[in-house]
């Protein structure tokens, strides 16, 4: 059997497919598995032992209806897939399945009307199930059952070598795709001080180039033991760094899933979004104020819709430190 899995984005959602790939290969060890994703997200899944061929889609090269059709003809049509498993379930992935004309199994996204109510601020967002469990629903006909949120993220020796000097440090991931998913930088700064005072470890902060100034603010307040690696590491190098850390403290973002994928001790801070989208293993600890108005958003917003941002403001550095202290 030859199978095409599809998940284009983003970092976290791609990593969340790894338990599905693991169980699929257990059920069908002789199956040939191809995985289709965006070129700029390939590091999130490359090296996974359950994937035989990683295929990358270049958005700028294959635009629109006819671009997608051309991509299928040039890269997929001659692969003779038996089935397609669409874990993205949007227009691009649906068109690819259509052009391949193969039996397709798709996971059920959230309820459309529930989504509208949340976006109109008429309802809080309550997930019907975790993302990974909904992925597994696409495989029901194969009698493949959910077996836990055991994520995998692969890196290589060269990645570990680059970050080896930071072995045993505490790693912070202070960024996120939306502002209401970010714990305050002033709070991260104070937490860095508390962590260094107690654990006597360096604080290493990862992020993209666009987060450099925000991270530098934290480092300027904690000189001598705080290091700004914004824009300096690849995803693989970030994973290697996290795997060698004492523990990580992150927002609801890609680094949360990378950290879990390398089995690092992980503390994740949630605010406007719902932690019920995930199962938390023994190695991951949720830090959440559970305000009456949260979760108020599917993926976060530019600003708190009520203006007070209590879901993050009420999580003081002292509260977060106490949670870490009790669970390390």
The arrangement of helices and strands along the chain is: EHHEEHEHEHHHEHEHEHEHEEHH
Count of discrete domains:
2
Instruction: Look at the structure and give the CATH class of the largest domain.
Output: Alpha Beta
Radius of gyration: 20 Å
Describe the protein in words.
The chain has 328 residues and is α/β, with parallel strands linked by helices. It folds into two domains: 2-142, Rossmann fold (3-Layer(aba) Sandwich), CATH 3.40.50; 163-327, 3-Layer(aba) Sandwich (Rossmann fold), CATH 3.40.50. The protein contains 13 helices and eleven strands. The strands form two sheets. Strands 8-7-6-9-10-11 form a six-stranded parallel sheet, sandwiched between helices. Helix 3 crosses helix 4, helix 8 (185-199) crosses helix 9 and helix 8 packs across helix 13. It is globular, with a radius of gyration of 20 Å.
List keywords for this structure.
328 residues, alpha/beta, Rossmann fold, 2 domains, six-stranded parallel sheet, five-stranded parallel sheet, globular
